[in-house]
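Friendly challenge for the regulars: who can give me the structure tokens for this chain first? No prize, just bragging rights.
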Amino acid sequence: MSGRALRTPPAGRTIFEVSRPGVVGVTFPALEVDEVDPASVVEERLLRREEPALPEVAEGEVVRHYVRLSSLNHHVDRRLYPLGSCTMKYNPKVNEDAARLPGFAALHPAQDPSTFPGALELLAELADMLREITGMDAITLQPAAGSQGELTGLLMIRAWHESRGDARRRVLIPDSAHGTNPATVATAGYEVVTLRSNARGQVDPEELARHLGPDVAALMLTNPNTLGKFEREILRITAMCHEAGAQVYMDGANMNALLGIARPADMGYDVCHLNLHKTFSTPHGGGGPGSGPVAVRRHLEPFLPRPVLARDGEGRPFLDGDRPRSIGRVHGFFGNVGMHVRAWTYIRMHGAEGLRNVSETAILNANYVRHGLQDVYDLPYGPACLHEVVFSADRQKARGVKALDVAKRLLDHGFHAPTTYFPLIVSEALMIEPTETESLPELDAFVAALRDIDREAAEDPERVRTAPHTTPVRRIDEGRAGRELDVRWTPPGGAPGAGPRARGGASPPGADGGGATGSGTAAAGSP
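First reply, four minutes later:
Bragging rights claimed.
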């Protein structure tokens, strides 16, 4: 044995840096067929000129590499994920067990529906349950996200107006709306009209009356709204819209506050989308797959995307494609069925009483956080809230610490940041949604962390301004990272097929406690 000391590679090294020439992770058996020259069966333009720059590592090193990467990301199985308006609740593992059953997981999208009656029955039962929860008359499970659900709902509203020979051109949204709302309105071909909120952060009926007219197609209104407030005048608001011939669309992103307590249809809404990946605990999943079913009142049912899930004379579910007034498909095949299985499992496990308890606990947890922080962070729209609470860091900003700094410093305490700078009507906004799945000790730890950051803002503001201090990637150039996002890494000296070095102010590999593999932001989330 050499007298040279053996040293364990730093945890922050990339898999390329761990790579050693000649190391083999897997040995393939000998071919049982004749070898074929790729050039004889593949166009020359598609053939590589050089071998790919793949790392040479043992199987154990590969496993450790990916386990280490998984521990660097914050996720809901790790700790509180208070991203406001996103409802990042714990995803029960029984949902995953159900979705992995062969009868669901092994379905092929092009399979004849007659070959999976059990899955169709589950989808039909889920549709029935979601109709009951919303009070609506019909539903489509096709949309793959809340944003796609919004577009689906507006397209149905447009089709309804046009079927009556009434081509309207404007849609009203409050100034506190989700950013997807105005984007959806424009995508659907309408003009966006913004309503100014009142002093309570809610829709002002007088302001609404000034904008309602014969050219208004709809009002899009989240309830509770993005400030975590219930729209007290909702019955008056929906009645005013209907009197003017407009429809009312509910962004269901905050439905976690209403389960078993209030139904959108009873408030006068005509359309409502639901986020299964929020309210009904199916995973958000790194941008997908999501699921955003859209429920409607009876007069909009003819315009649902086809095929529509229906039942025959004997009560058996089938996919009905004979829908001449349909707006057409909005998703390939029948949506993200795995998400539907997870949501069905979640609803059946809870039952009606359990779902109401979900919302009541979510409201209780949000108000617990509010009460624990309201003496150190400003509450611009009053004390009471539902499932989420929106603070302002204006008081901290006066000491030189912005909301973004608070969010970054939270990472050092082991928590994901809350949503920052949203809603836009709140200066230095910190939007916190703890959800119902967090325990009292976890909420206490989160409150203590934010109180500690407030203390630091007074005693050592530079410590907060330069946070995070314990993450693999430190404070970066946010603007540059957004414009020049690059999450690829090039081995020293470069290699064929590899991208440029990570940019954006990230620490170099192995420096300051960890290797940087990209330049994405490490803190503030968005709704």
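The longest strand covers residues 247-252. The CA atoms of residues 50 and 496 lie 7 Å apart. Your move, everyone else.
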